[in-house]
Amino acid sequence: MQSADTSTKTLPADKISPVYYSSSVYAVSTDEAWKNVEGWPYEVSNYGRVRRTIPVKGTKAGDIIRGGSSGKYPNVILCLNGVHKTIQRHLLVARAFLGPCPEGKECHHKDHNPQNPSESNLEYVTSSQNKQKAVEHGYRGTARYNAKITDQKAKQILDLRADGWTVREIMDLLNAPESITYHVIRRDNWKHIS
Fold this sequence. Notes:
Number of helices: 6
């Protein structure tokens, strides 16, 4: 497929942020490169932006697809002949720029920020390597990009639970949201707290 010619503006350098790469209608850099999305009439850039390669009902080739988010990962809905598929942007970037994911590996964000789908931030690693990198770089507890409580509050939750307090009592005492309280108790992101 031919690359669509677009007349997008370049985003000023002080406005470039990985969080906004995937939804920006502006070119994020002069080194932005585009590759076809295999099996779909779209292209993905090395920064995670997605654009159409053919016009469809009121759209034109080169239109940037804004998309949304599935959990913590930015995604985009691709459409072909009435078939819609939601795909995470980082996976589109990885497939296009790194090649197919080798068996037994998964896509890893080097900066541990799932909002940054740029090629330079992605690599294929095993699941155990992915978890080990998070531990090595300290991306647990308050170091996570989306941490809602402190290590101290997590320790309080664990101590109170060990002393027999109910989840409701802990939530009321510490003014902690239910989901976060359960995440701490289950040690989803707080395994390093003892």
